[in-house]
Amino acid sequence: MNQYTLLFGPESYDEYRKVFSGVEKYEGQDMKFSSLKGDPIYSEVKSIVKEKEADKERLTKIKSEIKNLVLDVLNKYNVKLNGEYEESLLGAELLDIGSTGRGTNVVGEGGLGGVGVENLILAYEGNIKKAFGEFYKVAINPDGTIKTLEELKKDFKILDAGMNLRFNGHDNFVYNMNEDGYTKMIGVIKKYIKV
User: pLDDT tens digits for 140-175?
Assistant: First the structure.
């Protein structure tokens, strides 16, 4: 008779290791993907991609205008703009690292934002249907009505893994949403995820 109890067996270990799926460095299992082609939302996704392509020219123009305004201010105060790979402590650095710089922006505003959606999906094992299904469950009252955005903000969190040094905490992407974005998200989930 064994006097010890196994607390962390092979099954538990395998379950824990799922966190590393798709991460070759840690010998994670292959990440599973599914194609959207047979999905009813495929045409909508293609439509969004076309909208983004059409919007690219407008965004490029706006980014150029912003850069010129920033350069004017830097010149006014005799601050040199450093080159992309320059490591000087003197001067300024201008980076386009937001969703428009990565090309992950969505035409329109008021939603979780690109990184917020990424964090939501990753929080549910990379499964978009599970992520939006859980979001929807929390957004619905027991009587079937939709919670207000303020109620949702109390009940649901999508936290950024990185620390926001401005307030020494983690961003909650639900706070990025406005009423219009929240209403649209609920509508899309009802229509396409079929929760």
Answer: 999 999 999 999 999 999 988 777 777 788 888 898
Note whether residue 26 is domain-resident.
no
Phi-psi region of 120 (alpha: psi -120 to 50; beta: other; left: phi over 0): alpha
Domain count, the chain: 2
Model pLDDT for residues 60-102, shown as the tens digit of each residue? 888 889 889 989 999 999 999 888 888 888 888 887 776 666 6
Asked if residue 10 is part of any domain, the answer here is no
Residue with tokens 């912003």: 66
In the numeric block, which tokens belong to residue 183? 């209403």
Give the domain extent around 136: 110-195
- The residue from 108, 143, 160 where one domain ends is 108
Closest to 26 in 3D by CA, of 40, 16, 37, 35: 16
- Contact between 39 and 194 under an 8 Å Cβ cutoff? The reply is no
- pLDDT grade for 37, boundaries at 50, 70 and 90: confident
Burial class (CB in 10 A: 0-12, 13-18, 19+), 113: buried
Same domain, 115 and 191: yes
What's the Cα-to-Cα distance from 104 to each of 81, 159, 177, 182, rounded to whole Å?
26, 19, 17, 19
